[in-house]
Design a protein that fits this description.
There is one protein chain. By secondary structure, this protein is mainly beta. The chain has a single domain, classed as Beta Barrel (OB fold (Dihydrolipoamide Acetyltransferase, E2P)). Helices cover about 0% and strands about 55% of the residues. It contains no helices and 5 strands. The chain has a 5-stranded mixed β-barrel. Strand 4 and strand 5 form a beta hairpin. The protein is globular.
Length: about 80
Amino acid sequence: MPKRVLLGKVVSNKMQKTGVLSVVSLKPHPLYGKVIKKTKKYKFHDENNDCNIGDLVEIIESKPYSKHKTWRLLRIVEKAGE
């Protein structure tokens, strides 16, 4: 089974070797059809503290690093402010 990869923006990097990613998904309402924006946050492992707030990054499923951290940084797609 392939591992999931998510793309989103970093919203926090205040922890050591950990970042928080915000992933936005658009889904239609089941009855009314209006498109609803849902946001979910994921904690990911960032070994070298490379990410900054606002960066666009990809994360991949991995072994559990802690209770809430089961993702790791795959690559930085775009740095903030570039």
